Write the structure tokens for this entry.
Amino acid sequence: MRVSSRRAAAVMTASLALVLTACGGGSTNQLDQGTTFEAPVAENVSFEPGTTMARLSEADTITVGTKFDQPLFGQKTIEGEMRGFDVEIAKIIAGKLGIEPGKIKWEETPSHTREEVIEQGKVDMVVATYTINDTRAQRVTFAGPYYQAGQDLMVKSGNTEITGPESLRASKAKVCSVHGSTPSEEIKKYVEPSQLVLFNVYSKCADALRTGQVQAVTTDNVILLGLVNESNGKFKIVDKPFTEEPYGVGIKKGDVAFCRFINESLEKAARNGTYEKAWEATAGKASERTPELPEPNTCS
């Protein structure tokens, strides 16, 4: 369930020159220093009866599982607003169903609960830095991917001893990740069991790094980018990615029609510039590179 290597490294700086298009209105989010993004909302939509799309469109609401503590991707502000690239991807999909952003219900979904909330029907989809892999695909269907990340390490700015995953075992560094995440399993190749510290959210890992309880935090580079961005210069990324992490939209297992709808929605967003603008208004604030939408996987 990995995307091609050609797409794995596909990031480009060229802008999509097309203007945002939409059949209807939208809800504008003020994301940072005057940067806004408006999720287009379609009008007069119609879907085949009995499909997930028809059910959600008729209900005029959708429940989305995402993270509340991931700067730049999925974060709930003190004011209760949802921000981040995952949030905007969810709004783009909801908009194609004719659902206004204000009618989306957000469900906090840490890494270790993602399959569970989908299977139990607590959410209609999960957009939560959710890496597509074969194990997870046995329980849920993945649309996308909508972004290609890579696992890396975050350390204190003055740390020169940790230079990549291969340096961890010799340095005896404590490394933090979260329960149920792909990075927490991958890092086991490079550390002894006694070196690994697991929490339920990455914000606790950042706190542990700040207080010296651990010497490194590992997860996908874009998540680390958000934590570095909020650290006021205290943290840095080692910048030696050692995996490919395609982020997908998790939905109920076997819902092929909904999967194809999501893929088509993402492809349209990439063509008309919506995808790029969503990135620039969120994760793009801390990254000079604008990603290209990866090729979609086969829905199954």
The chain has two domains: 5-149+246-291, 151-237. The first strand starts at residue 11 and ends at 12.
